[in-house]
Amino acid sequence: MELLKNFSQIVIETPVDKIINQIKQLITSGQLKPGDKLPSERKLCDVLGVGRTHLRDAIKKLEFYGILKTLPQSGTVVAGMGITALEGLISDVLKLEGNDFNSLVETRVILEVNSAVLAAERRTGNDIKEIEKALFAHRAKIEQADHAVEEDLMFHLKIAEASKNSVLKSLMLIITPDILSYFKQHDVCGDGRSNKAVEQHERILEAIKNQDREAVGSEMRGHLVDILDYSKTIQVEQLYNNKIESNNGGMTGT
């Protein structure tokens, strides 16, 4: 029905989302600057009217993306890295044209493959432990039949950290979260693809352990090929829809 096109999906915000949005607005408006310290948990909970669990989950998520940083005996402060990503160089992936989204995914593939190759070359024993920990968390979430977007991202970020290239990691923080969120919303990782992803992660980790640059590049590229193919599908659909709209707009009544 044509009428259905006029409706849009309703997004229900959780308390955690609302806390994150408030902090985001304070940062992007300049009221919170890098290095500024957040009020205590007790004061924030009182003002926001939420429990500590929701507040801690929001802070943990913002730390995950590099927006906040908790320092021992100093509290939680606004970090420098990640603020650009929060504000949104890619402000809303759902509003991107098909061609833009495809370019976004292509860029991710380039970053990820090179990140994995460098990780195989430069990784330390501690890096291997961190990647293994991220892989375990990802596998555990999948076994619970739950979305594992953040666990998936963490696995890839740990590889980026092992590459010892901070620019690669920063670029991935900007690009990857929006892509994964889009896939989660549209259930792109369904139909057994999540289990397949875990198996691919295991092979990627093994290649990094073995410092096999050629193998890890091939494994990472193969891991991301489904995502790339999906983005191309979106691009084709967008071009088709634009053509239909253009043809409809060019028609005149008689």
From TrEMBL:
SMART domains per record: FCD, HTH_GNTR
Gene3D superfamilies: GntR ligand-binding domain-like, Winged helix-like DNA-binding domain superfamily/Winged helix DNA-binding domain
SUPFAM superfamilies referenced in this protein's UniProt entry, alphabetically: GntR ligand-binding domain-like, Winged helix' DNA-binding domain
Pfam hit, one: FCD
Segments passing through the bilayer: none
Domain HTH gntR-type, chain residue ranges per copy: 13-81
GO molecular function: DNA binding; DNA-binding transcription factor activity
Keywords for the protein's UniProt record, in alphabetical order: DNA-binding, Pyruvate, Transcription, Transcription regulation
Keyword Thylakoid carried by entry: no
InterPro entries named among the record's database cross-references: GntR_C (IPR011711), TF_FadR/GntR_C (IPR008920), Tscrpt_reg_HTH_GntR (IPR000524), WH-like_DNA-bd_sf (IPR036388), WH_DNA-bd_sf (IPR036390)
PANTHER family registered for this protein in UniProt: TRANSCRIPTIONAL REGULATOR, GNTR FAMILY, UXU OPERON TRANSCRIPTIONAL REGULATOR
Protein name as annotated: GntR family transcriptional regulator, transcriptional repressor for pyruvate dehydrogenase complex
Species whose genome carries this gene: Reichenbachiella faecimaris
